[in-house]
Specification:
It is a single chain. Strands 2-1-6-5-4-3 form a six-stranded mixed beta sheet. It is of the alpha+beta class. The protein contains three helices and six strands. The radius of gyration is 16 Å and the shape is globular.
Length: 140
Amino acid sequence: TAYAHYAPSAIFHDPVSIAEGLDSIKSQFNGMPKVFAESITEKCDLLAESDSSHLAFNLTQKYVFKSPIPFKEKGTEKTVNSKVTLYLDGKGQVERHNEEWDWQGNKSEEDGWMGKMQQVRKKIDAKVVETGVPKNPDKV
């Protein structure tokens, strides 16, 4: 499957959510078609810092939102340049998937009180998506 390269306990972290566990990660990605009419990879380059413990990419992704206007399929477009880092376990599976939009580090509890608040919000966001979006892509 598309998620076979993720460890069961993997964590996905971006500026919107922190999804803990494979089922939550599946829901995050399976939910994207509910929001976006299109998601187009414009650029994806492997960075020199990559090694056997992690793969780092420079990713440029164009998102086209679904239109809120009836009978209009596409809405606003947003292009995001990100640093994507996949940290691998001893079996070569992804144990952490970090996406840093505009190459800005993700805020977490290590960043003080505001970082702690963002971390709590991101975990709640992931749980809300997980509750509303099936982990099985065939049921989306």
